[in-house]
Amino acid sequence: MSRQSHSKTQDDVYTFVRRVAGHQGWELNQDPEFLDDLVSGLRQNYARYGYFLCPCRDGTGERHKDRDIICPCVYNVPDQREYGHCFCALFLDRRFAASGKRPQPIPERRPESLFE
User: Has residue 4 been placed in a domain?
Assistant: First the structure.
């Protein structure tokens, strides 16, 4: 049996992240080049794995092991609550976005045991 081909256009992925942001009441990163890089990473991961794996984390390619880092990841809300943005800075809390601050690196919440 042949492996199923997974593909999304860049526009498809932009539609996905805009819908997620709108549904959740979040903003997207306001740096167009950085945002485009994140969307490209999501697109590549979708082509590779068949799901939107966080572009800033390494996954296994096994959906059940990666479920916590499928975009938007389970760490997104606590990261936004504490830092104003998610780990990869794709999604921003509205107050953080309105502040004009730039996202900064934040600590990884994902337990190391899940990296293996």
Answer: no
Please report the pLDDT score of residue 76 as a whole number: 97
Tracing tokens 């082509």 back to the chain, one arrives at 47
Look at residue 44 and tell me if it is in a domain.
yes
Rounded to whole angstroms, how far apart are CA atoms 11 and 17?
10
Residue 63 CA to residue 43 CA, distance in Å, equals 16
Q: Report the number of distinct structural domains present in the chain.
A: 1
pLDDT digits (tens, 9 = 90+) for 13-24: 999 999 999 999
Q: What is the chain's percent helix, strand, coil content, to nearest 5? A: 50, 10, 40
E strands, 1-105, are: 26-28, 91-93
